[in-house]
Amino acid sequence: MPDLNTITPPQLMRLIGTPDLPVIIDVRIPDDIAAAPRLVPTSVLCSHKDVADLPDRLDGRPSVVLCHGGLKLSHGTAAYLRDTGLKSEVLAGGMLAWADAGLPTVPLDAIPPGNLWVTRQRPKIDRIACPWLIRRFVDPTARFLFVPSDEVLNIADRFDATPFDVADVQFTHRGKGCTFDAMITDFGLAHDALERLADVVRAADTDRHADSPQAAGLLALSVGLSRSYKDDNAQLDAAMPLYDALYRWARDGFTEGHETPLGTSS
Predict the structure, then answer these.
(1) Distance CA 161, CA 153 (A)
(2) Which SS3 state, helix, strand or coil, does residue 30 take?
(3) Dist CA 127 CA 169 (whole Å)
(4) Which of the residues in the chain have pLDDT under 50?
(5) 184-190 contact pairs (CB < 8 A, 24+)
(6) CA distance linking residue 266 with residue 94, whole number of Å
(7) Contacts of 206 by beta carbon, 8 Å cutoff, 6+ apart
(8) Close Cβ partners of 139 (under 8 Å, ≥ 6 residues apart)
(9) CA-CA distance, 16 to 136, in Å (whole number)?
(10) Residue 178, helix vs strand vs coil
(11) What is the dihedral sign for C-alpha 195, 201, 206, 209?
């Protein structure tokens, strides 16, 4: 029987990429982080010595706590949080179990400082898909500035923001791939569902619709959204559920057809 108040790596992985993801708190000690400088996607580092600050930071949100092996540091932190009335679980087996399961991890040195990103205004596909990816798999608190094309790099410099989907920056098109592909690669996020979704995004963003049957539909919806919203951030907010749905299709429903009986997939 599994321990009380624990969640397994596969169970947590099914929450990552969805709006239902709890806050993931990594309380590993510095030596363990230095030995494995990678994070479970979206997790935030926090010393167990700062546990008293966590309830205010969580602001009522549920959490999953992990440490190196899923023992004293994570169980102690989660128990403290539950004592304050918050829901908190422990990642069974900790970072060791996550790595043993072969699940994605984000290199610490790939995560830009701060949570501010900047790109060209009037987004359509890549500049919506990438913010969705960042918020769902890297940093749920990420903020996005949509600005005139010729001002992206200047604003990135002045506001300490990370530029993307413009020329001559790290996160941009590479070869036949789009910026979404570059982010999946650099953040170590490659897994079947995201790669399946990336095929759709790439085909739609590069007008290679023959590469993915879903690409023309994504383009049509993206054009419709861009024409429905004058405010780019409002457009992003409206598009988040679209990409949530596409991710669930790519993860669980890609074999379904219109006549597939209800209840045959989860």
Answers:
(1) 9
(2) helix
(3) 14
(4) 1
(5) 184/133, 186/110, 187/41, 187/106, 187/107, 187/110, 187/111, 187/137, 187/138, 188/38, 188/104, 188/105, 188/106, 188/107, 188/110, 189/41, 189/104, 189/106, 189/133, 189/137, 190/104
(6) 26
(7) 176, 178
(8) 42, 111, 115
(9) 7
(10) coil
(11) positive
pTM listed for this prediction: 0.95
- List pLDDT tens digits, range 29-86: 999 999 999 999 999 999 999 999 999 999 999 999 999 999 999 999 999 999 999 9
CB-count exposure of residue 17 (10 Å: 0-12, 13-18, 19+): buried
CA distance 245 to 250: 9
Cα–Cα distance for residue pair 252/266, rounded to 1 Å: 7
Q: Is 259 exposed, middle or buried (0-12, 13-18, 19+ CB in 10 A)?
A: exposed
Token pair in block for residue 181: 């592909």
Instruction: State which amino acid sits at residue 212.
Output: S
